[in-house]
Amino acid sequence: MALQKTAKDDRSIGELFNELAGEAGNLIRQEINLAKAELISKAVKIQQNLGLLGLGLAFGLVSFLTLTMAVILILSIFMPLWLSALIVGFILAITAAVISFSAIQRLKETNPMPKETIATIKEDTQWLKKQI
């Protein structure tokens, strides 16, 4: 509901400001609803990606442990079992650190700020300034 100007507008300044205040209130409520919707959408995407990451890690862990044991047993043919386990353990620790830092960096790149809402609030502020 925009401010409507008739051919002969008999409304007082007070009435016009009341109408403007009502419009501003409606606009603010709409912006809050938009922000909520945008934040919920981003949170759902993050949750889905984290869930898939967890599932992939679970399956990967089982296969990884099996392959690790196989590598340790193969290396034990050429050296003592404890030494082959130690070597494989160090290699795995380095690999785990690289993967973890990569995942943390990707999570940091996810921007939860409601960009659309911020842009429309700026537009609404300009509109309100023009109306006043």
Q: Beta-strand level of the residues, as a percent range?
A: under 5%
Shape call: rod-shaped
Q: How many helical elements?
A: 3
Query: What order do the SSEs take from the amino end to the carboxyl end, as H and E?
Result: HHH
Task: Determine Rg (CA atoms, Å).
Answer: 30 Å
The portion of residues assigned to helices is: over 70%
Distance between the first and last residues' Cα: 16 Å
Number of strands: 0
Mean pLDDT: 86
Q: Biggest sheet, in brief?
A: none
How many domains make up the 3D coordinates?
A: 1
Poorly predicted runs: none
SS-based class = mainly alpha
Outline the structure in words.
The chain is mainly alpha-helical. It has one domain (13-131). 83% of the residues lie in helices and 0% in strands. The chain contains three helices and no strands. The chain has helices at residues 13-75, 81-109, 115-131. Helix 1 runs antiparallel to helix 3 (115-131). It is rod-shaped, with a radius of gyration of 30 Å. The chain starts with 12 loop residues before the first helix and ends with a helix.
